[in-house]
Input
Amino acid sequence: MRKFFFAFLITALLIVPSFGAEQQQDLTSDYITQIQTEISRDISRIRESVSKELEGLALSSSDIARRINELAELTQKSSDDMSAWGYTEEQRELHTQTLSQLSVAYSAYSALLQGNVFGSEAPETIDVSTLGDDTSPDITTADDLRREITKVSRRLDVQLFYVQSKINKLKIDLAEASNLRKRLEEAETGNTAIELPRTYVLRFELAKINVALSQLQVRSLRNAFDQNVAAIQRLRRRLDRILPTIIFSQEVLDAQLEAIQATINERTEEMSKARKSLDSANAALIRARAAMTSQDADQLTTASTNYMVRTARVNYWEYTVSLLEEEISYMRENQQLWRYRYKLFHDQAGGDEIWKLRNDSEARIQELQRQLESIRTMEANVLRQVEATQKQSAAEGLSGVVAQNLIQAAENQRRIISEVLNRYESLIPEAVFYQQRLYSEANDNLSTLRVVEKVGSFSKETVMNFLNTELWQGEGYSVTVQKLVIAVLVFLSSFFLSSWGSHWIKRRMINRFKASITAANAVQRISFYILWIAFALIALNIVKIPLTAFAFMGGAVAVGIGFGMQNIFNNLISGFIVIFSRPFKVNDIVDVAGVQGVVEDIGSRATTIKTWDGFDVMVPNKYLLENSVTNWTKSDMRKREILKVGVAYGSDSRQVEKLLLDVVKGHTAVLKDPAPFVIFKNFGDSALEYEIYYWIELRKASGLKVSSDMRHHITAVFEREGISIPYPQRDIHIIADKQKPHTENA
Output
């Protein structure tokens, strides 16, 4: 029984990763659904605002065409119109720019409306017929489906980015349109003055057409996104449907190996030709180096640039040979992968071999990913070389031959990217795909039987001898590794049982006896420690380990408590004092040495306070007893706030006091009792200084938001009544130095 338990424990630990992989696949489907829901929610939130801003805007094809013609006519006569309006140079530039942007926006809307509604984000059509036959599917059909799912998923990631960016653009356009609408309405009512009403009308129209354009783009991209989601779902359903009937016959394996061998033969012949070209390029490079003089090395001459051309050509063929060697290596590796997959499919691999295949494929995937990063870094370096060579070729004063050589060198360097490195980047993902398939199929074959077989390879006898090793013994007892392991497992289990039991007691106190949160938390912590000690004693009794077995640790524990754990016990005792003395309770608003916030939890070691900024601050209980604590809500939830205001000298002080008092009394968050009042505080250096005193309910209002809201009201009232808030002022008096009369010495 004990042997079975140990084997089962090792089995559970080893097969957990494969379960996690399956759950991750399910989460991917849920994630796509969640993204679709969030996109729909974002669009629905702004749909009403979009309809409001586009109300009255003609957006049919004929209306768009007519407006484009009208804008063309306005642009032609804009110069005369602006002269008649008396526009300044800056105003002319703004008006001309607005007309141009408006024409471009209408043209873009017309093109998107009449042309391809999906633009560049149209989903590619998936030809399912090319992915195999469902009536007798083999393993290559499943591979093609998985490869297509990965391809569409990557496209989906890109489209998701575009959809979210367009939604954000639509929100920005809505804010711009709303702002311009308000300014125009204020201009019509005479509350403000706009210097360019005609230009602002055009800018408002521009904002609205931008909203319409962004809305159409969002709708188009959303349709493309949904179509790709539907494509992935169709592919996954088809994959799930054919997986139970997949066949992997010897004929399929032979066909794959034969096709790969044919490709290897082609690449081998291609590499032979590339080596000859490399030898020829090296010979030409040697001749070009011999033709150079010492003066050619430091300047752009015909000889030096010819050497650059030959060097770039040698580099191209070196990269090509290296690519072909790697490709042939990948192909041979792929042949072996197909043989391994055949063995796994037909259960011809043993447990040790499966483990080795799984670990080797995992390591190979990481290696291939590092190679891909190296290729991308190499591509960036070559691209910088191309840019540097092109910059040299564009320099002034170069002869025709030198410039032509530099252009040819840049072209040879560019071919390294387009014909070699890009091909490299497509090879590695394919190799990664087959390694991932091998890894997944090896994981699927790691059953419990093979894991136990893996454990048995380490020798069951050796494991059991280790478990029966005696650690120490005393009078009538002995402690072995097995007993100690079981005791530790039971002891750890007691932690979770104690936690569950103490929480059950807490819920009963709150629901049945209507106890407060603070009291329930205190009882929960005390019961947790009692239950934990009880379960620990039960665990020792189960494995027949008496308490005397730990007597030798008593002195060490006592010293540890006396020195290293004194702060822990100090905070623990302080926590119980805080819980039972109740200077504050959960959900009270407190101030502890500048830390202000709501009490979230009163723990045994520390109290958690959530500040107004949303941070959780852990304050040790010892600190709460040794320092002053301000409880704003112990007896009253009201808090007095002070708002300071300054007005310009010459203002009617009584009128200012009355206006301020009307503002504070009219605010819904300000309490009527105690009544607010206004104090004429002082004659300041630059202003008449007032202070407004009012009270708010902390549970219902925020002091910062209330004061901000009243400042907005005060600004509007002062602007309406013609009362100004002055800037700091200083009067400077300059006293001329009187010149004393000059007297000459007699």
About this structure: The two ends are 133 Å apart (CA to CA). Strands lie at 470-474, 477-480, 589-592, 595-602, 606-611, 616-620, 629-631, 638-647, 677-683, 688-697. The first strand starts at residue 470 and ends at 474.
